[in-house]
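WARN  no MSA supplied for this record, continuing single-sequence
INFO  ligand: 2-oxoglutaric acid
INFO  echoing inputs
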Amino acid sequence: MSVKLRDLSTTKQKFFQVNQQISAKQKADYFCDGYLIIKDFASSLECLTLKQVIQPYLKQGEAEDVIFSTQDQCHCEEQYFLESGNQIRCFYEQNKRQEDKTRAINKVGHALHAQDAVFKRWSTSPNIARLAYDLGMKQPALIQSMYILKQPFVGGAVTCHQDAAFLHSSPITVTGFWLALEDASVENGCLYAIPGGHQSELSQRLIRRGNKKVHMQDLAENEWNIKEAIPLEVKQGTLIVLHGLLPHYSPANHSSASRHAYAIHAVDLTSDFSNDNWLQDPCIERLGHC
Ligand SMILES: O=C(O)CCC(=O)C(=O)O
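INFO  complex generated
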């Protein structure tokens, strides 16, 4: 019997496995290391569903040829990128081959959490909400989402960064929830992070001036040593929570296995979201208390 996954996610059948509250030890680990790894956060059905629901967006063929590269940030000058904060748009790898566009998609962003019913349901689930409150957020709200494909052989590197460089607020509250939709290993470009690196200052900020201009501004000397980064190899369904000041990156994928992930970013609405962030007019999805 073939299963219609999209239907499954909207019927009464259980789409989410229900997760427990995190323990005091997990919370302490998060504040010590700047990240928290939660195994089996999502079921294989949830992962499969999200992987299926993304497919039509990859095939829609309307995507402009905008490359997403953290090496030179050239995408940042493009209106297609700047206006994607409340849209669902595809971005390409730097070394894409013209004849096979779908296989060269780097990521889909930045409002799946609001503009697609299934992604919205997963992103705003009580599991994510509970986690955000458990980690001390007072009024957590999702503002950005990305489906990252890291496709075989072409999946590019993401340079070392702190998420607060892109989603800045005073005080800094941005928190990333990164779900492995496929196993992530050293071979296919898993995340790397510097344990405890979130205790360093914010080193850069992507600043937007007006409608067209964005630039990366250096704020402080990098205090972190990238050699201290460790690979976060995880299985499908694992969630990695990332503190907004944690330096993290992922190398290119030179293997034959893809490394799909879904990342959502929340801020605390009690903090002031900086009005010179690249992301303006985001889709805000508040996470309810549960
Ligand atoms: O998935 C990746 O390779 C990078 C993701 C990332 O940097 C993020 O979600 O902040």
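The chain is about 20% helix and 25% strand.
INFO  checksum written, moving to next record
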